[in-house]
Amino acid sequence: MPQEHRSTPDPFDWIDEHAELRRRAGLVRSLRPRPADSPLLDLAGNDYLGLARHPEVVAAASAAARRWGAGATGSRLVTGTTELHAELEAELADFCGFEAALVFSSGYAANLAAVTALTDRGTLVVSDAANHASLIDGCRLSRAETAVVPHSDPGAVGKALDGFAGRAVAVTDSVFSVDGDAAPLAELAAVCRGHGAALLVDDAHGLGVLGDGGRGALHAAGLAGDPDVVATATLSKALGSQGGAVLGPARVIDHLVNTARTFVFDTGLAPAAAGAALAALRLLRAEPGRSARVREVATGLYERLAGAGLDATRPDAAVVSVRAPSPEAAVRWAADCRGAGLAAGCFRPPSVPDGISRLRLTARADLTEAELDAAAATVTRTAPPVRPDA
Ligand SMILES: Cc1ncc(COP(=O)(O)O)c(C=O)c1O
């Protein structure tokens, strides 16, 4: 209906007001087309091991789609579990050192499942202030009492748990997605044990990158398979596919099958994604050097950027981020990188826990030293001038 004939207020006017506020704050997001044969050097994605286009992974995806169909056709509780899903779950659990695993249609869904299924209104959840949005949303959905504690601070977790007699779960990323720093998992586990609390760790950025042959941050910390520890992971980063997983004691996994709403009421992981993730996992097992190489590339990238005077974070896994003076400067910086042939992530509020905008760069195991030199030179050449007060 044309505006002049309306007798009631437009129910979506507020959207324009919000868009204007975003524009003024330099926080507008828009979708860019991505050609299949992009000439850009990609340091924006999370394909840490360079497996998303690996011929064996792509062939496994297409073979799975041909055999099982393009979609899973329904919740696995309704239409059943393919042998592909079962093999993936068994091999993932075995590789990472857990008793059992359950795959989901995304890492986001896996995190919602783990937090909500392990908590209820009476549970205390202690959540790191820099946790990923999917863990935060899990806390909100759980309706549990949530104590948000300062970033990577086991002492604060202990204080939050002190004196709480009911069920409690501490929740953390293993590697924080914005700055790439690792959580103090061993200390967190000790604090949780001292209070009878469970520890839930999102290993989205650790699987394939940390631990022996890429077995993940929990394996590296000696916590994989512990009876009071649950991990989540995504199949969409180091494994180059799509989907997510929860790993833990068999009784926890069985509980999720029965109660996790993002499992029960969600169509199962697409066969192509399951097939691709399984092929990637087998490649990782066969070629354990990939995880060491991605860490080496991340360190090399950091050293080049810090050496050039940029405010880069020292990577604990595959992510290096470089602070920008403002959201607008970060957007311009990423655009200038793109113009010079480099894809870099641009993180601005609300995707950053501290409100500071950054370029987020990701290492890949298949990057050459020459590509690293070129990437670092581009980021340095296009860097915004440092503010005198910075
Ligand atoms: C720490 C973390 N957890 C969970 C997710 C969600 O995983 P997915 O993309 O598979 O939904 C992401 C990123 O996407 C992440 O960075």
Order of helices and strands: HEHHHEHEHEHEHEHEEHHHHEHEEH
What is the name of the CATH topology of the largest domain? Aspartate Aminotransferase, domain 2
- CATH homology-level superfamily of the largest domain: Type I PLP-dependent aspartate aminotransferase-like (Major domain)
Low-confidence stretches: none
Rg: 22 Å
Report the portion of residues in β strands.
Answer: 5-15%
The distinct bound ligands, ions and cofactors come out as: pyridoxal-5'-phosphate
The CATH architecture of the largest domain can be named as 3-Layer(aba) Sandwich
Give the helix proportion (percent range): 40-55%
Number of strands: 11
CATH first level of the largest domain: which class? Alpha Beta
Tally of discrete structural domains? 2
Strand order of the largest sheet: 2-8-7-6-5-3-4
Oligomer: single chain
Kindly describe this structure:
The protein is of the alpha/beta class and 390 residues long. It has two domains: 36-51 and 288-381, Aspartate Aminotransferase, domain 1 (Alpha-Beta Complex); 55-286, Type I PLP-dependent aspartate aminotransferase-like (Major domain) (Aspartate Aminotransferase, domain 2, 3-Layer(aba) Sandwich). It is 42% helix and 14% strand. It has helices spanning 13-24, 55-68, 76-79, 83-96, 107-117, 133-142, 154-161, 185-195, 217-220, 250-259, 261-264, 271-286, 289-307, 327-339, 369-381, and strands at 41-43, 100-104, 124-128, 145-149, 168-173, 198-202, 229-234, 244-248, 319-323, 342-347, 358-362. The strands form two sheets. Strands 2-8-7-6-5-3-4 form a seven-stranded mixed beta sheet, with helices on both faces. Strands 1-10-11-9 form a four-stranded mixed beta sheet. Helix 8 (185-195) links the parallel strand 5 and strand 6 (198-202). Helix 4 packs parallel to helix 12 (271-286) and helix 7 packs parallel to helix 8. The longest helix has 19 residues, at 289-307. The N and C termini lie far apart (51 Å). 51% of the residues are buried. The model has no long low-confidence stretch (mean pLDDT 95). The structure holds pyridoxal-5'-phosphate. Pyridoxal-5'-phosphate (PLP) is lined by residues 106-108, 111, 132, 134, 173, 177, 202, 204-205, 234, 236, 244. Pyridoxal-5'-phosphate binds at residues 106-108, 111, 132, 134, 173, 177, 202, 204-205, 234, 236, 244.
